[in-house]
Specification:
The chain contains 9 helices and no strands. With 191 residues, it is an all-alpha fold. The protein folds into 2 domains: 55 residues, Orthogonal Bundle (Arc Repressor Mutant, subunit A), CATH 1.10.10.60; 133 residues, Tetracycline Repressor, domain 2, CATH 1.10.357. Helix 5 crosses helix 6 and helix 5 packs across helix 9. The protein is elongated, with a radius of gyration of 19 Å. It comes from Actinokineospora auranticolor.
Length: 191
């Protein structure tokens, strides 16, 4: 007798993407407080039970959206990084958090993490931790290649490079165009 296949838990890729896009759009339109699984299901054209079968919460949906969108729209340089590629990454990061709907997801999850320890833990495990490892590898590779001479350890360097950008985005303040150049020049030193 052939093995029985399970059809109830298999994700349909089209439906999965519809859910992720619906969550993204609804977050931009209504904010985190107005984002509900019911609204996501309705917008995506799937049953609410389907969403709960695939994701335990709206935070998990947003995390999947963020991870997928970040990989596509904010890739970390994989070629041997230089001061110029790091500078461009900072500019792209600034555009991402201020202009891209996925940037709004990132900022929302940062804010929600301040109030919900479970969200903070999941956010760190699934997104912040892995992303930090990739960014740290970028800084370390550029340092090892002699492209930059950071004045701080890699994690502190990243905090100082990305922190002002996130702060400006969270407070709806403009991000100065010269910020990336200034931070790179002051923090990473000459080649």
């Amino acid at each position: 007798m052939p093995p029985r296949t399970r059809s109830g838990n298999r994700r349909d890729e089209t439906a999965r993407l519809d859910v992720l896009h619906a969550a993204d759009d609804l977050l931009v339109e209504h904010g985190f407080g107005g984002l509900t699984v019911e609204a996501i299901a309705k917008r995506a054209g799937v049953a609410k039970q389907t969403i709960y079968r695939w994701w335990p919460s709206k935070v998990d949906i947003l995390l999947d959206t963020l991870i997928e969108d970040t990989e596509k729209r904010l890739p970390i340089p994989t070629d041997p990084p230089t001061a110029d590629t790091i500078r461009e990454y900072l500019r792209a990061y600034a555009r991402f958090v201020t202009e891209d709907p996925a940037g709004k997801v990132l900022l929302t999850l940062i804010a929600e993490s301040q109030h919900n320890p479970a969200t903070a833990k999941t956010f760190h495990e699934r997104y912040l931790g892995p992303r930090r490892e990739q960014e740290r590898a970028m800084i370390t590779a550029a340092t090892d290649a002699g492209e930059i001479t950071p004045k701080l350890p890699p994690d502190a360097t990243l905090d100082v490079l990305l922190g002002p950008i996130v702060y400006c985005a969270l407070t709806n303040s403009p991000i100065p165009r010269t910020l990336a150049n200034t931070l790179i020049g002051e923090l990473l030193g000459p080649r």
